[in-house]
Design goal:
Blueprint: E1 13-18, H1 23-32, E2 50-52, E3 58-63, H2 65-73, E4 79-83, H3 84-90, E5 95-100, E6 106-113, E7 125-130, H4 133-141, E8 146-151, H5 158-161, E9 167-172, H6 176-180, E10 183-192, E11 194-199, H7 200-205, H8 207-229
Parallel strand pairs: 1-3, 1-4, 7-8, 7-9
Antiparallel strand pairs: 2-3, 4-11, 5-11, 6-9, 6-10
């Protein structure tokens, strides 16, 4: 273990992957880049959080998306995959995102009730339900509005109809969930894709991390080339 708390070249690399929407798309990308978990990872009955890989010098950990960024930024994991929404929300100085994987595409948007016809142009203070308080405050501050953020981790679409918050900021893919709950999308804060992230110190001190960056970059470029030729 070096002075930054990061395993040296003789130890295992820890690769953090997110539970949820990105993982299914990420696994084939990881396999093509040489990162494959063992069979237990795919066992729905397994409650393990750490898993062996086909590479003996690497293990995978499967955690919440927000925690992927925290593990990598603090050196507990050296490499990970997470959405750009998480990267932008935390803005960790020790986190570097060298490769856009082009998967997990969605957007972070503002939405309100469809019957809320007040554009709010004269509003200076607004209550907003979100799990992205940092991005939300910055977005509204740019328009001269102070956003009071109500932190929710799910069921965001219920907040306006129940009077918890007038607007929400949440991830949107097709917009179907918004429409089914009587909401309309009013602004896009951020277009999102999954990124390969690395700890900056690990990238400088462990050649294996740089090699992984190169492997994922080649995979993304080859996939883009094939898609363009199709």
């Amino acid at each position: 273990m070096n002075t930054n708390g990061i395993p040296d070249n003789s130890g295992q690399l820890t690769f953090a992957v997110p539970k949820g929407r990105i993982l299914d798309e990420a696994l084939p990308v990881m396999a093509r880049a040489g990162v494959e978990p063992d069979a237990e990872f795919h066992d729905p009955k397994s409650r393990a959080l750490a898993f062996a890989c086909t590479r003996p010098d690497m293990r995978l950990i499967r955690v919440r998306a927000f925690d992927v960024a925290t593990f990598v930024a603090h050196g507990a994991a050296q490499v990970g995959i997470v959405g750009s929404d998480v990267i932008e929300e935390f803005d960790y100085a020790d986190l570097y995102a060298p490769v856009d994987l082009g998967i997990g595409l969605c957007r972070l948007s503002v939405a309100r009730m469809a019957n809320d016809t007040d554009e709010g142009s004269s509003v200076s203070h607004l209550r907003v339900a979100t799990k992205y308080p940092g991005l939300t405050r910055r977005h509204f501050a740019a328009a001269g509005v102070q956003a009071e953020c109500v932190k929710l981790n799910g069921a965001m679409e219920l907040a306006p109809s129940l009077g918890l918050a007038r607007q929400i900021v949440d991830l949107v893919s097709t917009g179907t969930t918004l429409r089914e709950n009587g909401l309309v999308e009013t602004a896009v804060i951020l277009e999102i894709s999954a990124r390969l992230i690395v700890n900056r110190t690990a990238l400088k001190t462990d050649r294996r991390v740089a090699a992984l960056v190169d492997a994922f970059r080649r995979e993304a470029e080859e996939r883009c080339t094939k898609a363009a030729a199709a």
